[in-house]
Amino acid sequence: MTEAKYTIILVRHGQSQWNRSDKFCGWKDVHLSTEGARQAEYSGRLIRESGIIPTVLHTSRLTRSCQTGNIILEQLNRQYIDIYRSWRLNERHYGALQGRFKSDVLKEVGKEKYMEWRRAYEGCPPLLEEADHDDRYKDVDQSELPRGESLKMVLERFLPYVNGVLIPLLEKDPSEIPLLSVHGSIVRALLKHWFSISDEDISGLNIPNAIPLVITLDKNFRPIGEYRYLDPQSAYVEANKVAHQGFGQT
Ligand SMILES: O=C(O)[C@H](O)COP(=O)(O)O
């Protein structure tokens, strides 16, 4: 049997205020809703009960991912651990759809286009004229900042973080357990990459808010078995709600 060498915990942030109102969010810096903060607490409890205790936190530069990570660490009484933050862990940039109600976009462009923009691996939403030149991205080569992205583009900008930060940290100390408090598209991109999910199948994968999932890797950073949610039943129910966003039924 292949020996497990590394363990990684991934979690999508808790419900944001725009998740609650079914608006495209992307790089807009929307905070957690009250329910989202409660979900993040639950996430922390699940991790505590699993006994898989993170030793380092990675977040994006978006507040909802930072808030979720902080709440989880508070639940674990581990607010002292190191935190790494990067724009490369940001949600997929939703281009000109950001701030629009999902139901309005669905009505306007029809189901096929709507699903292509939301879920097709190479489906890219209409681009913004200008990238987000926010202070938090001041150290980033401005030509790298997206104006809208497909999941494929997310994977391309996220992999340098996996190979340049995440993996080297684990190689240095294999006992580290990183917690990635991130976004739906980052979780989808990472699962696609590590579990070789096809372009077609990835379009059917939806990620629930704030249900942690655990991945075990061998010494060559190849996954062992399947990834597993710490609360599979809730993950199933909540992922189904995500799938139906915009359709007026949850
Ligand atoms: O950015 C957003 O709007 C959400 O976090 C993800 O939205 P999606 O599930 O429609 O891709």
From TrEMBL:
The active site is at 13 (tele-phosphohistidine intermediate), 91 (proton donor/acceptor). GO terms for molecular function: phosphoglycerate mutase activity. PROSITE patterns: PG_MUTASE. It catalyses: (2R)-2-phosphoglycerate = (2R)-3-phosphoglycerate. The record marks 183 as: Transition state stabilizer. SUPFAM superfamilies: Phosphoglycerate mutase-like. The keyword Isomerase applies. GO terms for biological process: glycolytic process. Substrate binds at residues 12-19, 64, 91-94, 102, 118-119. This is Phosphoglycerate mutase. It comes from Komagataella pastoris.
